[in-house]
Amino acid sequence: MKKFAVFSGFLGSGKTTTMIALTKYYTKNFGKAAMISNDLGHGVELADNKLAQLSGCNASEITDDCICYVNDKLAERLDSYYDEGCELVVSDIPGFGVGALEHVYHGLTEKYPGRFELGPFTVLVEPKTVALLKSGAPGELEYLYDTQLIEADLIVLNKCDLIDEREREEDLAWLAVHYPLADVLAISALKGEGLEDLSVALKEGQASMRKPDIGYGGESFLAAMGRMSEVYFQYMATVCCGDFDGNAYLMDIAEKVKANVRLEGYEIPHLKLLAWEAEGDYGKVDLIGTDRDIEVVHRFERPCTSIAVLLNASGECPANRLEFIVTNSACSTSAEYKLELIINKKETMAMG
Ligand SMILES: Nc1nc2c(ncn2[C@@H]2O[C@H](COP(=O)(O)OP(=O)(O)OP(=O)(O)O)[C@@H](O)[C@H]2O)c(=O)[nH]1
Ligand SMILES: [Mg+2]
User: pTM higher than 0.90 for the full model?
Assistant: First the structure.
């Protein structure tokens, strides 16, 4: 079997966490699996892919463009995974992305008929987004939240550890009514719950190959995309003498970004801070909105002396402000920790 499925879903909904958990679970219980992280940065190393590799996952990345527009590169990558014995490969798309149903599923099928078996087009959603949609006032990003779900063959309600059983049933029922063409299931990627059901859904399920009209490139699409920006910042940080607390360092940067984004009245759907020592010890901190606590995903076990740092920020914020806030927070925190920086990469993109 050469099964491939796209994982879509808004920034921070848990695509990467789910793909890491699923790839490991599937490999152990069903057959060899692999994951691809996809984002737009040019020549960057993605925090998501590095995290997957540090977590011991069979993982790689496709950068420079959405997989929507590089069907040939994607097909080549899939072939190399199937050649090494993989039975399932999953790839995400950028978290504000829509249109992969047409551009990836139909694109691959037209260019390579019969070569890949496409699993259900899978869309992750978290309870916070369901609550926003239910409220009827999800704001200017409604187009993205709603359209991603319209494209789904399979809706995966993630982060169910954050809600009780009654809320979970209500959310699943609401999703089933509002997106009736999709199957729905609930998981907690963090706790590893629901992975059996998700694995079976991907193994047994097929892509519907529907072609919903999602108004791609239309007014609502442009209005939502016009709010989004991305910053990639990569550097080496070395302490001048002794060692330092890498966990506190990442947390301090995240605190500063959160405070400054809030001060300027913007939002930051996802800031990823990933750092690692040459020996493989690593720390990961996430910020998924100024109204939420900063999450420590993984802690350094030992004090640090020299670390590689990847900061990937997705803002609902003008690109120049996001770049200033992220780089200034990283540089000023580094100065406080007396770190010498060698900057490898800085890239900023406005999505509009
Ligand atoms: N409580 C809880 N948190 C989760 C779960 N899954 C993911 N998270 C957290 O949610 C945050 C975002 O998860 P990611 O997997 O990075 O989200 P993503 O969809 O890949 O985000 P982008 O790459 O920005 O599009 C991280 O801090 C995760 O630890 C879950 O099941 N429960
Ligand atoms: Mg991700």
Answer: yes
